Amino acid sequence: MASKPASSRRSLWIATGTVVLALLGLGAATAVQTRAETNHTAPAPPPVTRVPAQPPAASTPTGGPVTTPPERSARTLVALPRAAGAWPGPNGLSGVNGDPVLDAASVAQFCSARGRACRVAQTYTDRTTYETMTSGTGWTFEYFANFDGVLVISQGLVPIGGEAALPACARGEFDESWRNFGNLMVQHGRGDSIVRLGWEFNERTSPWGATDAQTWIACYRHAADAIRATNPAVLFDWTINAHSTPRHLCGGLSTNCYPGDEYVDIIGIDNYDHYPWSPTKADFDRVAARPEGLTWLYEFALRHGKPFAVGEWGVVPTGDAGKENPEFVRWMHEWFAARAPHLAYEAYFSNCDAGGVQSSLFRVDPRCTGNPGSAKVYRGLFGP
């Protein structure tokens, strides 16, 4: 078993037995230009198509079937009914990433502080080589072996520094590695989990940034098909970075890189209170409604009949606000509650790393920027 990896704003990986933390700042460190405000009126959406029915149980290389217990089954829990007007309610999947360590104990500590157990935990894989990020990232699952909830795994499409490998991925040259990853999920009893495959591809510093949309889509499809070949229970969450897509990525619009409904089970966004931050509710609503915004992508998901998710969100006192913004927590909760019937899950992102978003709510160690007002609002809304 590898050493336990610590939490970071973005990519975490193991290098020659040593835990290496890399703060890529995907969507966090760089101020980005916001789009000109446009009028956007969505047509009346069709009913959301819920997650597909449970597929046949996958098998391990030894031939024995492996199923995910109901309390850990993403398909089972995402499909539960949720009434509009309340969140999390009895069936809402609300949680967090592991911080300061990517493990179940850190998630439990956060959820104990808020006063409500977490039903979802968001984590990451190794990112050193294709081998270590697929067959060699067993620690991702080992550190959540005792977590009775849905596991959400953020998985890149290429290793760190491997941008040049995207065309090879698009040609299927790494399909065997992806099949190995599907096998790994099954072997750890986490086949029925959510994978945020190639998440935040529209962020300017992403190692798997979609500089060529068709190449990125082909790589995503190869990876998805190969993972499903060995793990048919997996759910794929296609996730963008909120607020802006640079012109050199996806032609300046994230949805140009949508891989198609048959390759996506959930559509999601990472939505932080920065660049731009929202000093008022009107600002929050305006930013959410314009292209690359929270509501804008939610409406896209409805049109495609997909459940929606917010895999990362939080206050950013280190961003353009220059302070915590407790009202952002309140507005996010209102947004979640209003759309609960179509919300697959949401996970707050807790972080105290130097140079990071400093979004932690309940950690009190010296390295953390305090967000007491946000913590109070969060506990009151997401707690008991």
TrEMBL record:
Keyword Zinc assigned: no
InterPro entries: GH, GH26_dom, Glyco_hydro_26
Protein name: Cellulase (Glycosyl hydrolase family 5)
Keyword Zinc-finger: no
Signal peptide: none
Gene Ontology biological process terms from the UniProt entry: substituted mannan metabolic process
Active-site residues (renumbered): 200 (proton donor), 312 (nucleophile)
Listed GO MF terms: mannan endo-1,4-beta-mannosidase activity
Compositional bias (Low complexity): 56-70
Organism, scientific name: Krasilnikovia cinnamomea
Keywords of the record: Glycosidase, Hydrolase
Family: Belongs to the glycosyl hydrolase 26 family.
Residues in GH26 domain copies: 42-384
Domain of life: Bacteria
SUPFAM superfamilies cross-referenced by the UniProt entry: (Trans)glycosidases (SSF51445)
UniProt feature, compositional bias: Pro residues: 43-55
Region spans: Disordered: 37-71
A Pfam short name: Glyco_hydro_26
